[in-house]
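Q: What would this complex look like in 3D?
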Amino acid sequence: MKAILRVLGLPALLVLAWWAYSASADNFYVPDPGRVAAAFAETWFGERLLDDALPSLGRLLAGYVVATAVGVGLGVPIGLSARLRATAEPVLEFFRAIPPPVLVPLIMLLAGIDDTMKVLVIVSGCVWPILLNTVEGVRALDGVLADTCRMYGISRRHLILRGASPQIMAGLRQALSVGIILMVISEMFASSSGLGFTIVLFQRGFQIAEMWSGILLLGLLGFALSTAFRWCERRILFWHWSNRA
Amino acid sequence: MTRALPAPVYGAAGLAALLAVLEAAPRLGLVDARFLPPASEILAELGGLLLTPGLWIALGETLRGWALGLAIAFVAAVAAGVLIDLVPGLRAASNSTIEFLRPIPSVALIPLATLLFGASLGSTLLLVVYASFWQVLIQVLYGVADVDTVARDTARSYGLGRWSYIRHLVWPTALPYVMTGVRLAAAVAFILAITAELVIGSPGLGLEIQTAQSGGAVPTVYALVVLTGLIGIAVNVGVRALERRVLAWHPSVRGTSQ
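A: Here is my prediction, written as structure tokens for the whole assembly.
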């Protein structure tokens, strides 16, 4: 009972405050929670789920997977060779420092405005944190551990991927939030479907409750993805000290 | 194996190789020069832009949104973090709310910002503050929880007041965490400042990119993108320098300098 109160107490209070505010202030931009909930059910449990929400998620996933493959695939050789690392590092730092959203207009120029463009945008933003963290993780591999593995005939690939995995996961976590941002933004530019497009459409049509329901959906999506990520991370890094306490 | 050269030599070689590829690919016709102009052209364009006052005004707008948003988020997050730590039971009660609100992508607020503020500094601030607030708050919460129990008991038995307890015990303990939060938030805030300008049209570099792109001024788009990258690097370097300065007394920094 106490635990439930602890988890739900403050959120309930906040919703109550929202409701009280919308009832008393009569602000056009702040509809009451009931209307937003109704709009949420009406808008998203139907065609829009299939036409807008799922394709958005699919593109995010595709971009994320490609970025992971490229980032880890390039990061391991760069991390292993000191000379390659010294050569590549300034270039990589520069690319990482570019705010990913400015790549949207560039990639629109190069790849048009179809699905490929949106996936490419997500890849181009997600790949840098993964790549740089992989390089850092591989570089920092313990020398004694490497020698021990050689002695016991444990495969080098196993050592490298396992040893660098905490860093790689840190990169993947950063890449996930970048990916969500880019998923939304790539759809706000020149698009006719997707979550980002739909929310802006509601906003332009002053469908305020629907717009709020879209914000709510993006929020739930962000929360669900980060929860799923944490679950995966715990499974993959089950051996790491941070998960053994 | 030859003698190892110093790392900056390799780094310069890497940058030179990148420029050479970007120069050669359009010149040799591997990519359409209309969509990817040669590197020399991009850099010349950037040089030309740097001589125009409009660019510096836009740069100023972007940096103002960035700095102002970061400052608001910092003050709010530190105040909220300390408050959550001081009020008994509040940490447990607020945990679920924070864990839910934190992963909400701040770009979800773009439509709301557009309605409330339109294409102005307010929109930039809303996105920047929301995105950087959580980065700092989480670190503050880690930091204030890290106060050594012996030190806390000592402070209590010496009768430290609430204010000096915060000033002399909580703050120094939390500061390294806070600086980590600031470092993360500074990078995120820059991304969101540019995003707000690019998507909503608040004045700044993002709006310049958007205008150049819709006007078909391809070299200008590339030049501005390069510029944002350079500013991004400057932000990272600047915040790291600040971190080292503020934490000069801390064991993690003390050993490394000089």
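A: To summarize the key features: Chain A touches chain B through 54 residues (CB under 8 Å). The first helix of chain A runs from residue 2 to 25.
Q: Very helpful, thank you.
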